[in-house]
Structure formats: structure tokens, C-alpha cells
Design a protein that fits this description.
Shape: rod-shaped
Structural class: mainly alpha
Largest sheet: none
Helix content: over 70%
Radius of gyration: 54 Å
Distance between the termini: 114 Å
Order of helices and strands: HHHHHH
Number of helices: 6
Number of domains: 2
Strand content: under 5%
Low-confidence stretches: none
């Protein structure tokens, strides 16, 4: 505390003491007695009344002044009590709203987790559906190529190609037959890889990379196969 502050406090205390002494003298004058003429209990009561008048900031010890000051104090107390009650209700309302917001936040977090899981599941289903579509596409192409091969074999057989070729180009046909067997084995390998797409994890990037490699391999095999077929015809 600074020197100026300490001096201000002393001045305030001195002023309060002077007021209390003045009120004390006013009370003695009001009852018309000297303090030494009173009993110790009466002296104590006089001091208490003087202190009460000082606390109530009265300038007089008239009964009406006490009544007015006490009434004003009661009104202030009632107003303060009502204000405290209002504040407590407001506080309870705020605490309730806080709990509601906390519950809503937890519910939103739960819903977010469910939506994230549903999104991942949807992506996995879409990946599987894509793999199924590719598998059906490759199966269809395999059936078409097998049908074309059977048709070519029939045409060649009708023209007597195999009979003539067996005596003229047996070694060439044997080589082509071996290449066809290799192509068929490679085609089966690609088909097996496509079948395994069903068991891939729900990772779109990994699935697309594997699918892209399989497509390139199948296109290469298709090109080689078409080249062999055209060379035979």
C-alpha cells in the first residue's frame, strides 16, 4: 500500500470515528443523561446504537431516521435477494444448456463415426461391384473368343486345312498349338487374378492399380491371340 493510500484509509477511519462519537453524544443528549450515569449494559447499548447509526450513514439518531434507513436496507436486501435468485436460475439454465450442448456434441461425434464407417463400406461395395463388372466383361470376351476359335476350327476343317497342313507344315502347327496353349494358360492366369479381385481390401487406389495391370496384360494377350488367328487364316 502506498503512503497516499494509507493516509486516505486513516482519514476515512478518523472520519468514521468522529461521526460515531457525534452520534454517541447525540444519543446521550436525546435521553438526557451522562454516560457515567448509565449502567454498563446501557452504555453498551448506546455504543451499539451509535455504531449502527454510523453504519447506516445517519446524520441523526432520531427514531424515524433509524426506521427509514432500516426500511431502505430491507428493500435493498429484497432486491439483492431477487437478483441472486434470478442469477441462480440463469446459472442453472446455462448449466443445463451446456450439458445439452455437450450431449449433442457427443451424439454428433457418434453420427460422424457412423457416417465415416458407412462411407468406407459404400466404397468397398462399389469396388467389389466394379470388380464384378470387369470379371463379367472378361468372361464374356473369353466366351466370344472361344466361339470364334471353334468357328475357325470348323472352317479350317471344312476346307481340309488340317489334313493338308499335317503333311506340309506339321512343325509349324505344333508350334502354333504350343503358343495357343500358352495363351490359354495366360488367359486363365488373368482370369484367376480377376477372380481374386473379390477378396481385395476396400482400397480404391490398390484395386485400380491391380485392375490396370490386368487390363494391360489381357489386351496384350488379345492382340497376340488375334495375330496368331489371322496368321492361321
Amino acid at each position: 500500500m502506498t503512503t497516499e493510500s494509507a493516509e486516505a484509509v486513516r482519514q476515512l477511519l478518523r472520519k468514521d470515528m468522529q461521526r460515531e462519537h457525534a452520534l454517541h453524544a447525540d444519543l446521550l443528549q436525546y435521553i438526557g443523561l451522562r454516560e457515567e450515569d448509565l449502567s454498563s449494559a446501557s452504555q453498551k447499548h448506546i455504543r451499539l446504537m451509535a455504531q449502527a447509526a454510523s453504519v447506516l450513514e445517519l446524520n441523526t439518531t432520531d427514531v424515524s431516521a433509524y426506521v427509514a434507513a432500516i426500511s431502505d436496507l430491507c428493500e435493498k436486501y429484497d432486491a439483492l435477494h431477487a437478483s441472486v435468485s434470478t442469477w441462480r436460475r440463469h446459472e442453472a439454465k446455462q448449466l443445463k444448456r451446456k450439458q445439452e450442448l455437450h450431449n449433442e456434441l457427443r451424439e454428433m461425434e457418434h453420427m460422424l463415426a457412423m457416417l465415416d464407417a458407412a462411407s468406407q463400406e459404400r466404397d468397398a461395395i462399389e469396388n467389389v461391384a466394379t470388380m464384378d463388372g470387369r470379371l463379367k466383361e472378361y468372361t464374356g470376351k473369353h466366351a466370344v473368343y472361344a466361339k470364334e476359335i471353334a468357328k475357325l476350327d470348323k472352317n479350317l476343317a471344312d476346307r481340309g486345312y488340317f489334313h493338308v497342313a499335317s503333311s506340309l507344315h506339321h512343325d509349324v502347327l505344333v508350334h502354333l498349338e504350343q503358343q495357343c496353349a500358352q495363351l490359354e494358360a495366360a488367359n486363365n492366369e488373368v482370369r484367376a487374378k480377376v477372380d481374386r479381385f473379390q477378396d481385395l481390401p476396400p482400397n480404391l487406389e490398390l484395386a485400380n492399380a491391380t485392375l490396370y495391370k490386368a487390363q494391360e496384360r489381357l489386351q496384350q494377350l488379345e492382340a497376340d491371340f488375334q495375330s496368331r488367328v489371322h496368321s492361321m487364316v
